[in-house]
Amino acid sequence: MEAMNTLEVKQAQKFYGQFQAVKDIDLTIAKGEIYALLGHNGAGKSTLIKMILGLVKPSAGTIVIEGLNYDAKNKEIKKKVGYLPERMNFYDNLTAWETIGFYAKLKGIMKKRCEEVLEQVGLKEAGHRRVGAFSKGMQQRLGLAQAIIHKPDLLVLDEPTTGLDPIGILELKEMIRNWNKEGTTILFSSHNLNDVEELAQQIGIMNRGEIIAQGSLAELQDRLGLPTKIEIDLAVIPVDLEKILAVKRIETFLVEGRTISIDCPKAKKAQVIAAVMDGVLKVLDLRLAEPGLNSIYQSIMEKPAVL
Length: 307
Hints:
CATH topology of the domain at 5-80 and 152-221: Rossmann fold
Shape: elongated
Strand order of the largest sheet: 6-7-8-3-9-10
GO molecular function: ATP binding; ATP hydrolysis activity
Family: Belongs to the ABC transporter superfamily.
Protein name: ABC-type multidrug transport system, ATPase component
InterPro entries: AAA+_ATPase, ABC_transporter-like_ATP-bd, ABC_transporter-like_CS, P-loop_NTPase
Helix content: 25-40%
Keywords: ATP-binding, Nucleotide-binding, Transport
């Protein structure tokens, strides 16, 4: 029977002596999902990723990938996982072709696949250049090529945009979307909240070895109850604006120039919009801004209770 989830981490712990780096982690990533792992340096992300990759043995708990447990199926699991570390080291004297050919041989992959992956990551024309002459961004692309050469079920990316220029980041995002459309489940860590907000379907936030919040962006917004910001551009600011808004039960607002800013609970958003659009105020434009990941992350880290 095919596994419904690509990754299941249950009550995972990791001790280094008396120090507990990972505390009772429960994490499930459904097949075909893009999951982002966030947290400040030292939060435990790297240790958790190494446990998922089988590079570090958990002190307690279980890790199951595609229905296989590491204790019994280490070799089979590693065929199903691709990994791009934050820093990838290659032999400077080898060309990109020779480097990717080396990884293909290690993983039992035919050479035809080497050409495909070099093209996917934008290195086909640089295939005969020595890796030592590559920029950091080009080396990152080569790292991506070795991670996907065997078409893994689970692709783990640790800070994948490191070293990439803005165009390279856009191209990487497109690659991630394409690999995901082809059925690859993706787990990535990042400090770039904009990238996470754009790509991730599920988000986990770590602090002091624990996942203190996880869910979709919308789910995290709802649990925190962060307000929606409504900005209204008026043709003219009435002298009695405060009185007009008080009648509409809007008591807290800011005025800057001819723009009114109102923070309101998400549940009352429609009510506030209807009130300001009833014709009393001469509205030129109205904009909504839901709380983004930056606001969510800051709010959670200020009061790190488990959500």
